């Protein structure tokens, strides 16, 4: 039995291993295969998606194995031959796909995994769980970044989701253009900038007639005048007056977390200016989504805090990706089920643009056979792993590149592709058959 600490293989569904056992028994486990991860359609109301989770998936590959404890668990339903296979399991195939941060559309071959059926099929759940979650968050975050019109966004949704999902969500949001997170583990693990000052509890802790003022003075004493004071625990106007009294006109920012935010922001701006705090910024939070952000574009708001809507995908908690077998021993295979038809054979894609750089079409074609297209075109698929070894950039370098990729992608869309209203995908996808 394997005595290593690799137990990531349990991050899967039982049927992946029962399929493996059956394939080992009938001799098909070692057939050469290609699996692809793609979305048949975008979530309702979305015009584009943002690929996220690539680096997390590649980082998980070396740990996807079965230690003694994991083998003991799966021995309850697996035969000795399958257990021996899993004891020595290590993915040794090839992976290619869209760079993290790249936009995708219906039918885009976001990830292609090549190897034996045995080593590729067991990765299905891992790939789908990571890409479906992270991509959903990044896609929602990108819409919010676009709606915010250049004003910074802070991710603060840790208390609204699973504790580990919160860390991945913070990374995905930062990848899509958010400026910072409140989550310390995301800061430690991924280097995402972290921000945070105080909640209502700290104000409520200071009881008495001058409790709010005492709370603000204590916070300024601990964190300096550049801190952000939360002014809506009681009365906003009184809170602003107390904030400036505690910190002086050099106060960094005030935050409003409830009420009619646009109206309050106007009133608070006028009040701050009247008190000489002309450089004090206004931060707003409180159940914001991309539509609320768009509605605040005309308000004198300097930055936003977004929580629940972001970490739940703002109405689309999954990207809708599937992971399908498309090739066996060089022969294309595909489903024909109603409403779930897929195209067979390994695929790659080009994105075609006008000379101005505005994209107009995505062309999906049989791998290795790029078509001639009318206009400038950019190949989308890149090598991610070869013979099981990761060849793509990772860590801070990968995250920085992904942020740049998202920015470039959003700038390349036709203007109507950035609309928040329901509509068709920003650009059409054309899928070419193996015959061309």
Major beta sheet, strand line-up:
13-12-1-5-3-17-18
Radius of gyration: 25 Å
Enumerate the spans where pLDDT stays under 50 for 5 or more consecutive residues.
1-5
Distance between the termini: 49 Å
Fraction of residues in H or I helices: 25-40%
- Individual helix count: 15
Which architecture of the largest domain would the CATH scheme give at its second level?
Answer: Alpha-Beta Barrel
Please report the total strand number as a whole number. 19
| Major β-sheet annotation | 7 strands, antiparallel
Estimate the mean pLDDT confidence: 95
How would you summarize what this structure contains?
With 436 residues, the chain is an alpha/beta fold. It is 36% helix and 19% strand.
List the helices and strands and how they pair.
Layout: H1 14-26, E1 32-39, E2 49-50, H2 54-60, H3 68-74, H4 80-87, E3 94-97, E4 103-104, E5 111-116, H5 117-121, H6 124-148, E6 153-155, H7 163-175, E7 180-181, H8 184-190, H9 200-205, H10 211-223, E8 228-230, H11 236-247, E9 253-256, H12 261-274, E10 281-285, H13 290-295, E11 303-306, H14 308-311, E12 321-328, E13 331-332, E14 347-353, E15 359-366, E16 377-379, E17 382-386, E18 389-390, H15 395-412, E19 429-431
Parallel strand pairs: 6-7, 6-11, 8-9, 9-10, 10-11, 15-19
Antiparallel strand pairs: 1-5, 1-12, 2-4, 3-5, 3-17, 12-13, 14-15, 14-16, 17-18
Protein name: Nicotinate phosphoribosyltransferase
Catalytic activity: 5-phospho-alpha-D-ribose 1-diphosphate + nicotinate + ATP + H2O = nicotinate beta-D-ribonucleotide + ADP + phosphate + diphosphate
GO molecular function: glycosyltransferase activity; nicotinate phosphoribosyltransferase activity
């Amino acid at each position: 039995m394997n005595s290593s600490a690799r137990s990531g293989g349990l991050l899967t569904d039982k049927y992946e291993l029962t399929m493996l056992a059956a394939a080992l028994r009938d001799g098909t486990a070692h057939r050469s295969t290609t699996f692809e991860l793609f979305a048949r359609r975008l979530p309702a109301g979305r015009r584009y998606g943002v690929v996220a989770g690539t680096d997390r998936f590649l980082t998980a590959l070396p740990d996807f194995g079965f230690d003694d404890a994991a083998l003991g668990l799966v021995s309850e339903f697996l035969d000795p031959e399958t257990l021996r296979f899993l004891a020595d399991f290590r993915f040794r195939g090839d992976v290619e796909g869209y760079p993290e941060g790249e936009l995708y559309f219906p039918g885009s071959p976001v990830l292609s995994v090549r190897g034996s059926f045995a080593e590729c099929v067991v990765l299905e759940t891992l790939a789908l769980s990571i890409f479906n979650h992270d991509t959903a968050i990044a896609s929602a975050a990108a819409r919010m970044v676009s709606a915010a019109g250049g004003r910074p966004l802070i991710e603060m949704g840790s208390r609204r989701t699973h504790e580990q999902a919160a860390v991945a969500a913070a990374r995905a949001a930062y990848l899509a253009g958010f400026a910072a997170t409140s989550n310390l583990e995301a800061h430690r693990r991924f280097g995402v900038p972290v921000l945070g000052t105080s909640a209502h509890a700290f104000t409520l802790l200071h009881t008495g007639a001058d409790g709010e003022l005492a709370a603000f003075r204590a916070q300024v004493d601990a964190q300096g005048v550049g801190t952000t004071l939360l002014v809506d625990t009681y009365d906003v106007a009184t809170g602003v007056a107390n904030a400036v009294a505690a910190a002086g006109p050099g106060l960094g920012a005030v935050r409003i977390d409830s009420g009619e935010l646009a109206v309050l922001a106007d009133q608070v701006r006028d009040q701050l200016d009247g008190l000489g705090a002309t450089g004090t910024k206004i931060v707003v939070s409180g159940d914001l989504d991309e539509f609320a952000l768009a509605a605040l574009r005309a308000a004198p708001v300097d930055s936003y805090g977004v929580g629940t809507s972001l970490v739940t995908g703002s109405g689309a908690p999954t990207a809708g990706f599937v992971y399908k077998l498309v090739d066996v021993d060089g022969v294309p295979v595909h489903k024909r089920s109603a409403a779930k038809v897929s195209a067979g054979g390994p695929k790659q894609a080009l994105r075609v643009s006008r000379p101005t750089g505005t994209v107009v079409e995505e062309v999906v074609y049989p791998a290795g056979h790029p078509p001639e297209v009318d206009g400038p075109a950019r190949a989308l698929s890149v090598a991610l792993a070869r013979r099981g070894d990761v060849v793509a950039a990772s860590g801070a370098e990968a995250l920085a590149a992904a942020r740049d990729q998202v920015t470039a992608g959003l700038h390349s869309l036709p203007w109507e592709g950035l609309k928040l209203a329901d509509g068709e995908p920003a650009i059409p996808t054309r899928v070419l058959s193996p015959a061309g």
